[in-house]
Design goal:
alpha+beta, Peptidase_S9_cat, 5-stranded antiparallel sheet, serine protease
Length: about 675
């Protein structure tokens, strides 16, 4: 009884402290954080004559183009009505802008083209059940590109040449060898192909006249399969670049002489893998690389752009990146952001050393209470270093020592993948939750990418156990350091982060006050049995890092680590969000755990979006789910919430079960 009274007193103090810190701060409206940005994704055309970006047209993100000399004279050149355009690029001759889009989140991405002066958009890949891939763009061949199509066999992509003027598609290399990827040179000649191995590794084959050699010239096992890959040829074809972890822990940047096979290391870092690279748009020679341990940093290779990078570092606040470059390399589009400031985009004239601001992505956030992000190194119970990030509610840390004046409720926000990572920078979810009164913790648990192959391999066979322990260790750190108390922590995430949420609620049912699971696998056997066909190349790697469902031991492991079979252990409130068209984590993953809980009279709220896939791409749907989420968290953790209002009515949300368990949800659903 004494412990219960102490816990109740601590909870009351916690909520009171959060309320004091927050009362004078405005609630940042959800649509300001999660609605469409005003502008985003700027590019310069290869010839330097056009600027492009995405911006809303009737509430849907479309492509806009303006003369580079007059950005104010912009007009929309696409007219998507439902699905936002999230990925696009310029044709090498600057005569068209190309983009990919799917329908309802099904990930059958097709390729479209439109003129920078407007007019009718052309569908370049008029196929069904097809996911197009861009294989190569040449700096010298301007009228065509190489694309991969899986319309012949959904599991494997054949390479085709696409004539950008006529739209004619010509087969180049039929993928009968079941290759996962291809590397072409500046002449659009396929020079290399990679093939997955049964052990989860990769074999690399030289290709001549569109035929792969009989034997591989290089091979890596499972341990190097995600940290070693070719990074492209120079324009003269004499040098092949690699990101390469063979013989080392973290991946280095390596240059290989094609004629002799000799290699030399251009860059490496003991803390993290080499990440991105900047290659000269004409020669293909690498001029800079990035390392992202706790924060991303660009470093020059040689002197070609060293002075430019140094200039940009002095002129821009936060972390920056180069989004695109004109072929003559005179004009760059550069983006910069900080944790408490969303991205701004600039046009950089190298000759004039002039930086011109083009736009802020979310100007409505200016002057609103945004919080800085702390970088942390947290030790796991078995000695691993977990690079992590913490955002505190604005006004909660009057001493500026990185600790709140009083402990506050916390949301543990878990990244997806799991072979992905969290990073430093502006994060709308961190800002939203911090504004509502919560500390927000993001942890790079074992299996996260970018920190070397040993850290990655530490996650092999660790779903639901050691990977979960890393998250719990981060929570323990937060409690010991006065960030929060152990009875006021929620867990939330999407994809693998959703799995971690379900695992936390089912396997450690008293560790978290509540959970929010988005597109979350609940049964690992059914997850692996239903992966998309075009993921075939990664199947052996999934089995190697998880378990092989073709064996009795593998099936048993997958069942043991599946939250579905421990659903009866769940004690705390759970909110589940799902896209009906998700090809990766099928709707059945949500349906079956909701049914398992419903049949046992365990409260769960289930929100389903019939026009979404793996995540919620349409802002009206994302805002609706976040409206439910923040009111759910408010009841659970005691933070602030903007009322749900009419967000559900504007979305396609359905609530198959449990509306009564989420505050305000039944009323907001109305007649839906």
């Amino acid at each position: 009884m004494r412990n219960l009274l102490l816990a109740a007193t601590a909870a009351a103090t916690l909520i009171a402290g959060a309320a004091v810190a927050q009362t004078s701060l405005p609630l940042i409206p959800r649509d300001v954080l999660f609605g469409n940005p005003e502008k985003a994704n700027a590019r310069i055309s290869p010839d330097g004559k056009w600027l492009s970006w995405t911006a809303p047209v009737d509430g849907v993100m479309n492509i806009w183009v303006a003369p580079a000399a007059n950005p104010a004279d912009a007009k929309a050149v696409t007219a998507e009505k439902t699905r936002p355009i999230r990925s696009y690029f310029w044709a090498p001759d600057s005569s068209s802008v190309l983009y990919v889009n799917d329908k309802g989140g099904d990930e059958d991405f097709l390729l479209y083209a439109t003129s920078p002066t407007g007019g009718e958009t052309r569908l370049l890949t008029p196929y069904t059940k097809t996911t197009v891939q861009l294989v190569s763009i040449s700096p010298t061949i301007k009228d065509r590109v190489l694309i991969g199509l899986n319309n012949r066999d959904q599991k494997w992509h054949d390479v085709h040449s696409l004539d950008l003027k006529t739209g004619k598609i010509t087969p180049v290399m039929i993928n009968e060898g079941q290759f996962a990827g291809f590397v072409a040179d500046a002449g659009l000649n396929i020079r290399m192909a990679s093939k997955p191995r049964k052990d989860g590794g990769t074999d690399f084959y030289m290709v001549d006249n569109n035929k792969a050699a009989a034997t591989p010239f290089a091979s890596v096992g499972l341990e190097d399969s995600q940290t070693t890959a070719p990074a492209g040829f120079t324009a003269d074809g004499k040098t092949l670049y690699w990101v390469d972890s063979r013989g080392r822990d973290t991946a280095a940047l390596v240059a290989q002489d094609v004629a002799t096979g000799k290699t030399r290391v251009l860059a490496e870092d003991a803390r993290a893998d080499i990440g991105g690279g900047i290659a000269n748009p004409r020669t293909g020679e690498l001029e800079a690389y990035s390392v992202n341990y706790l924060r991303n940093d660009w470093k020059p290779v040689g002197n070609a752009i060293a002075a430019d990078l140094a200039f940009l570092k002095t002129q821009l606040k936060g972390d920056f990146g180069i989004a695109s470059r004109s072929t003559d390399d005179r004009l760059w589009v550069v983006g910069a952001a900080d944790a408490d400031r969303p991205s701004s985009t600039y046009l950089y004239d190298r000759q004039a050393k002039k930086l011109t601001k083009l736009f802020d992505s979310r100007p409505a956030l200016a002057g609103l209470p945004l919080s800085p992000m702390q970088t942390l190194e947290i030790k796991s119970r078995d000695g691993l270093t977990l690079p992590s990030y913490l955002t505190l509610p604005p006004g909660s840390d009057s001493n500026g020592d990185g600790r709140p004046d009083q402990a506050v409720p916390m949301v543990l926000l878990v990244h997806g993948g799991p072979w992905g990572r969290d990073g430093y920078g502006f994060n709308g979810y961190h800002q939203w939750l911090a504004n509502r009164g919560y500390a927000v913790m993001s942890v790079n648990f074992r299996a996260s990418t970018g920190f070397g192959k040993k850290f990655l391999a530490a996650g092999n066979g660790a779903w639901g156990r050691e990977m979960q322990n890393d998250l719990l260790d981060a929570v323990d750190w937060a409690v010991k350091n006065g960030i929060t108390t152990d009875d006021k922590v929620a867990i939330m995430g999407g994809s693998y982060g959703g799995y971690a949420t379900l695992a936390g609620m089912a396997f450690t049912p008293t560790e978290f006050a509540c959970g929010v699971a988005i597109v979350a696998p609940s049964n690992l056997n059914t997850l692996l049995a239903s992966i998309p066909a075009y993921w075939e190349a990664g199947r052996a790697q999934l089995y190697g890092r998880m378990a092989d469902p073709g064996t009795d031991a593998g099936k048993a492991w997958l069942r043991e680590r599946s939250p579905l079979y421990a659903a009866d252990k769940i004690q705390r409130p759970l909110l589940i969000g799902q896209g009906a068209n998700d090809p990766r984590v099928k709707q059945a993953e949500a349906d079956q755990i909701v049914e398992a809980m419903r049949s046992r009279n365990i409260p769960v709220t289930y929100v389903l979006f019939p026009d979404e896939g793996h995540g919620f791409a349409r802002p009206v749907n994302n805002i609706a789910f976040n409206a439910v989420t923040e009111n759910f968290l408010s009841k659970c953790l005691g933070g602030r919430a903007e009322p749900i209002g009419d967000t559900l009515a504007k979305s396609t949300a359905k609530v198959p079960h449990g509306a009564q368990f989420a505050p305000g949800l039944q009323e907001a659903m109305g007649g839906k």
